[in-house]
Amino acid sequence: MACQKGKGIQRKWMFAWIYPPLLVIFILPEVWDCNAFHPWHSIILSHHWPETVCLMVKETCKIPPNVDYWTVHGLWPKKNQMCNNSWPFKEENVEDILSELEQWWPDVLHPNSTQLWKHEWQKHGTCAATLESLDTQEKYFSKALELYQRIDLTSVLKKFHILPSSNYYTLDNIENAILKTYGVTPKIQCLPPTGGSSVQILGQIELCFTKEFQLLNCTETAPSMLAFKNGRHHTAYLGFFECEPGQQIYYPPIQHVH
Ligand SMILES: *[C@@H]1O[C@H](CO)[C@@H](O)[C@H](O)[C@H]1NC(C)=O
Ligand SMILES: *[C@@H]1O[C@H](CO)[C@@H](O)[C@H](O)[C@H]1NC(C)=O
Ligand SMILES: *[C@@H]1O[C@H](CO)[C@@H](O)[C@H](O)[C@H]1NC(C)=O
């Protein structure tokens, strides 16, 4: 059942209008009921680095020729997933922003990006939709793109001389670039070193926002989004870990052929 706040209050309000002293009693329970449907308080804009996404999968991966920037992974309400099975994603609902989605939110793992958008909508969008500002597929995907345009990670890192290259960086380098630019600490995720290497690979950067879309420090991690494996945190999707502060970070140049 959707949150019937507006309707409910209207009904109670009429009642209160007839019996003014009952106003508080009848409006309060309604508001509490409503809050039960959106218990999340912050939302994460997740960017991923297409080259690293490709490095972590064995299947074919295709980075479109023009893509040499951080792309959107998703817009995720904290501590909340899979909220409404009966609200399927339909591409026609995002028709007006399809070319932007294809440009900034591509799915490098599948020839048709609709799969990623569908997944993101089912898992996260249906939970975000408890907010009026995100309660349609068009609003949800547009808001993600709007926040993504506000946070220009590719340029920020470049400005701080952090470039996809054979140079290595530290977690501090990357965190500081973002903190100095936006005044908040992001959550930065890497692929751990493999095969005797001691270098981790930069994969995902998350920025946190309030429900009013003001930037927030990403200090606490949402337990529901993490699995526990080998004693370390990693996100369930694709297996990124929080980057280790003591290890060098490789920011791999984009290869368009995999
Ligand atoms: C789930 O989505 C459908 C379709 O938009 C809607 O009618 C229904 O009220 C929603 N359910 C909940 C629990 O929000
Ligand atoms: C992706 O595939 C779906 C069918 O699975 C199709 O309706 C849609 O037009 C395709 N979208 C793009 C962008 O190619
Ligand atoms: C985030 O944390 C930094 C210190 O780590 C602080 O200077 C900054 O004001 C905080 N930003 C917000 C939006 O709370």
UniProtKB/TrEMBL annotation:
Subcellular location: Endoplasmic reticulum lumen; Lysosome lumen; Secreted
The reaction(s) this protein catalyses: an adenylyl-uridine-RNA = a 3'-end 2',3'-cyclophospho-AMP-RNA + a 5'-end dephospho-uridine-RNA; a guanylyl-uridine-RNA = a 3'-end 2',3'-cyclophospho-GMP-RNA + a 5'-end dephospho-uridine-RNA
GO-annotated cellular components: endoplasmic reticulum lumen; extracellular region; lysosomal lumen
One Pfam family of this chain: Ribonuclease_T2
Transmembrane segment boundaries: 12-32
Database matches in InterPro entries: Ribonuclease_T2_eukaryotic (IPR033697), RNase_T2-like (IPR001568), RNase_T2-like_sf (IPR036430), RNase_T2_His_AS_1 (IPR018188), RNase_T2_His_AS_2 (IPR033130)
Claim: Amino-acid biosynthesis is one of the keywords in the record: no
Keyword Isomerase in annotation: no
GO biological process: RNA catabolic process
Active-site feature positions: 73, 120, 124
PROSITE patterns in UniProt: RNASE_T2_1, RNASE_T2_2
Main location: endoplasmic reticulum
Gene Ontology molecular function terms on file: hydrolase activity; ribonuclease T2 activity; RNA binding
Keyword tags: Disulfide bond, Endonuclease, Endoplasmic reticulum, Glycoprotein, Hydrolase, Lyase, Lysosome, Membrane, Nuclease, Secreted, Transmembrane, Transmembrane helix
PANTHER family (alphabetical): RIBONUCLEASE T2
Protein family membership: Belongs to the RNase T2 family.
Name this polypeptide is given: Uncharacterized protein
